[in-house]
């Protein structure tokens, strides 16, 4: 991820929704976490790395992607991304790292990990 190349307008072709976990009172003295939409925008998504591991003697895969987008100050690693799939289910990603590659507040570079739909 060290060699960041800003995306062209044509490369921003993935429409995604950013969500943040919000705690709300459950009426019994506790809280319940619900995901709320924060932002819908166009991004560039590129496969970055993947691996297969054994977990409890079952094969499990991990896929990581690089996301490039226009700068937004409120994007944090405690958010997740949903890539709607049209007639398909879509994809879900946990944000693991947020970087302003040139420190000029023009672009953001995110490392995200694909997850199963909750």
> Biggest β-sheet, characterized?
6 strands, antiparallel, barrel
Strand line-up of the largest beta sheet: 1-2-3-6-5-4
What would you call the structural class? Answer: mainly beta
Number of strands: 6
Q: From N to C, what is the helix and strand string?
A: EEEEEE
Note the overall shape: globular
Cα-atom Rg, whole angstroms? 16 Å
CATH class: Mainly Beta
**Whole-number count of domains:** 1
Q: What number is the mean pLDDT?
A: 89
Total of helices: 0
Low-confidence segments, given as residue ranges, are none
Identify the CATH homologous superfamily. Bacteriophage SPP1 head-tail adaptor protein
CATH topology: Thrombin, subunit H
Q: What is the architecture at the second tier of CATH? A: Beta Barrel
The helix content is under 10%
**Amount of beta strand:** over 45%
Tell me what the structure shows.
The protein has 118 residues and is an all-beta fold. The protein has one domain: Bacteriophage SPP1 head-tail adaptor protein (Thrombin, subunit H, Beta Barrel). 0% of the residues lie in helices and 62% in strands. A 6-stranded antiparallel β-barrel has the order 1-2-3-6-5-4. The mean pLDDT is 89.
Sum up the structure in keywords.
118 residues; mainly beta; Thrombin, subunit H; six-stranded antiparallel barrel; 62% strand; globular
Question: How would the blueprint of this fold be written?
Answer:
Elements (H helix, E strand, L loop, with lengths): L13 E12 L5 E25 L2 E13 L8 E5 L7 E9 L7 E9 L3
Antiparallel strand pairs: 1-2, 1-4, 2-3, 3-6, 4-5, 5-6
């Amino acid at each position: 991820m060290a060699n960041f190349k800003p995306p062209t307008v044509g490369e921003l072709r993935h429409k995604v929704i950013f969500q943040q976990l919000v705690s709300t009172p459950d009426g019994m003295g506790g809280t319940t976490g619900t995901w709320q939409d924060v932002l819908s925008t166009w991004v560039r998504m590129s496969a970055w790395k993947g691996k297969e591991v054994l977990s409890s003697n079952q094969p499990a895969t991990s896929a990581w992607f690089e996301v490039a987008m226009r700068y937004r100050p409120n994007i944090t690693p405690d958010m997740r991304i949903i890539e709607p799939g049209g007639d398909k289910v879509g994809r879900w990603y946990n944000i693991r790292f947020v970087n302003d590659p040139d420190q000029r507040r023009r672009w953001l570079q995110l490392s995200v990990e694909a997850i199963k739909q909750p």
